[in-house]
Specification:
alpha/beta; TIM Barrel; 9 helices; 9 strands; binds zinc ion
């Protein structure tokens, strides 16, 4: 569930795994200037006052359900990057995600971060983690016209794309999809400038403090793809406050499929 903030995002207009990687970090002027034909970057959809909520590492009984309740109450659709092995054990939760209009996306088979892989077996591992996961998740992926993949810990290498794009399913994937908001905890001069839910809970940061970090960053970058995790109840509690706070600040909600990637 831990995430790297600096991994490159790889999205091509051909809607397939990108074959190369490029990092564009810290240059705010480039954020609204994305050109997918030249690769995307960590910053997905900043600057439009639109929020895309994404939840990783579920489904988790007692947490995902609470998140679904909150999304329903607020009439917001989100994307769940689920771990396929967990999804297998939670068919009812998976059906609920689907039936309530959310996007189910691929966050690997077992959350094996694709780094430090053996020279002899990396291809097998990559195919297993992405394509075997797809087989399990495919029945739940019908709410989206696209298949989305997010890499555990943001770990990716351009050479994986070459292997995945050899399969018909792999070619149809967009990914790895990263995030704009929620990558790390940063505290300065008495204020959380950003926050990441998993790190908040492990550092014993309160729900309200963590929320303040998410809100600060959302306002600063004027919206984008938000990373949260449906692993701990605190994240569900935070979401119940986060959505109304975002609305009060003038943000609107979109789902990954609704994002005009070329804007
Ligand atoms: Zn994860």
């Amino acid at each position: 569930m831990k995430t790297l903030t600096l991994a490159a995002l790889l999205l091509l207009s051909t809607k397939s795994f990108a074959d190369f990687s490029e990092k564009i970090i810290g240059d705010e002027s480039k954020i609204q200037d994305k050109d997918f034909s030249k690769n995307n970057m960590e910053r997905l959809h900043r600057g439009h006052n639109e929020i895309v909520l994404t939840f990783d590492d579920g489904p988790t009984p007692g947490v995902t359900d609470k998140i679904l309740d909150t999304l329903k109450e607020n009439n917001v659709k989100a994307t769940f990057f689920v771990i396929a092995e967990k999804a297998k054990d939670q068919p009812e939760l998976m059906k609920r995600i689907l039936n309530e209009g959310h996007i189910v996306a691929n966050h690997s088979l077992s959350h094996h971060a694709l780094k430090d892989l053996s020279f002899f077996s990396w291809k097998k591992t990559v195919k297993k983690e992405v394509l075997d996961a797809h087989e399990i998740l495919a029945p739940y992926m019908t709410n989206s016209k696209n298949f989305f993949y997010r890499a555990p810990e943001g770990a990716w290498d351009g050479k994986y794309a070459g292997v995945l794009n050899q399969s018909e399913i792999g070619k149809q994937y967009i990914g790895p999809v990263l995030w704009d908001i929620g990558g790390a905890v940063e505290f300065k001069d008495g204020q959380y400038l950003q926050a990441a839910d998993w790190a908040c809970w492990s550092k014993k940061i309160t729900v309200d403090e963590c929320l303040s970090g998410y809100l600060y960053e959302a306002k600063k970058v004027k919206g984008g793809v938000v990373l949260m995790h449906d692993l701990r109840t605190q994240s569900a509690e935070m979401l119940a406050k986060f959505i109304p706070a975002l609305e009060a600040s003038g943000f609107t909600f979109k789902n990954l499929d609704d994002v005009n990637w070329n804007k």
